[in-house]
Amino acid sequence: MLKCPNKFTTNFGKKLIKYLDPNADISIIKDNWCWNEFNNLFNNRLSYLLPKVKNYFETTTSGNPSYIIYELTKYYNYDSKKAKKFIENCQIGDPSLSAFLLVKHCNFDKEWAKNFINNCKIGNPSYAAYLMVKYKFSNIKWGKKVIENCNIGNLCYSAYIMISEFNIDLKWSEKIIDKYKSQKFSKLTGDPSYIVVSMIEAFNSDIKWAKSIFENCKIGKPAEAVFECVERHHINKKWAENFIENCKIGDPSFNAYKMVESKISSIKWAKKVIENCKIGDPSYAARLITDLYINKDKNIINWAKKVIENNQIGTPCINAYYIISNRDKDIDWVIKIIENYNGTEENILEAVCTIINEYHINMNWADKILKKYYQKQSITCDICQFS
Question: How far apart are CA 332 and CA 346, in angstroms?
């Protein structure tokens, strides 16, 4: 069966219509559409497909079908008992948010929604609990309890938004965010380090507590959060440099560049971080450092080339092109980088097509490179119309 995405895409909309009716006109689906515009089709031009659409979303095993069931209930009088049953049995997506939306827009029983959100084991029920409190379908005490007992979803944001909008003790929110320090809560999502920066800025959270979150973060972009903290004088430079240098998630190389750009750290330190970085996109950071220092140090381009040559992560192919663009024009070096690349860079199509256009490289070479990544699929690129 055709997979349903979490967010609507034009490609999915067209495929679904063709899946339901091979003779349907898919040109009516526009690039700037979201689920709302797509669903409106079944209220007029494609109303004959509505039964098939309902059946598709009732039986799909991917995406966020509970949201579509909410939309079908709101706009197409989908049976309320069937909607409740579907959401109660839903095993994918974020049915807790759909339960809230059904209360807010379709007058579903709020006690039903509260009970469902309180017991929901998938999605982001803590945020649904916050929304129930915000729109006065429940009280703060209930919302806090749901969030306290929740071990999935973007819990850090829910804790932050609760304290931002309601009269709740700062320590309560910090205690919730502390869950991110434990491996026991591996199903949590979001970016606790980003939330911690906001907590410092808005509520003067303790720096010692903030550091403990940064140091124990398993998800998110803590190096970026630490850069923001040192830039705003919350954390000293030495601690921040040590953290970024040893960070194991996110993109420390980019934040090493940011530390130099903001004149906090030395170029010598940043180059060392970028050279040794095994995550993120060190090729991009090397390119940015080159752009920043090319007028001061002509040899920096050779350093950047070495970084790119040693990398199979991030985007070395497109950054190889940009490194030589308007500079030494060493296109043979770029070709070598692309030919030796074994990663999964999304920008490789752009890199190949750009150098074809600028340097008139043989199309057979391009064909050989691109087949390696796209498994002989037909490709169309706006840059060079390679297909």
Answer: 21
7-11, 21-25, 190-194, 344-348: lowest mean pLDDT where?
344-348
Tell me the per-residue pLDDT of 31-65, one tens digit each, with 9 for 90 and over.
888 888 888 888 878 899 999 988 888 888 888 99
Residue 19 host element (H or E): helix 10-20
Closest to 157 measured CA to CA, from 220, 113, 207: 220
3-state class (DSSP) for residue 153: strand
Instruction: Report the amino acid identity of residue 297.
Output: D
Q: Give start and end residues of each alpha helix (H) in 65-220.
A: 65-76, 80-89, 95-106, 110-119, 125-134, 140-149, 155-165, 170-177, 192-203, 207-216
Residue 168, burial from CB neighbour count under 10 angstroms (0-12, 13-18, 19+): middle
- Tokens 């929110």 belong to residue: 173
In this structure, the dihedral spanned by the alpha carbons of residues 75, 76, 77 and 83, taken in order and rounded to 10 degrees, is: -90
Instruction: Give the CA count within 13 Å in the CB-facing half-sphere of 332.
Output: 0
d(Cα 128, Cα 124) in Å, to the nearest integer?
Answer: 7
Helix (H, G, I), strand (E, B) or coil at 329: coil
SS3 296: coil
- Are 35 and 71 in contact by the 8 Å Cβ rule? The answer is yes
- Signed CA dihedral, 68, 73, 78, 79: sign only: positive
**188 beta partners:** 153
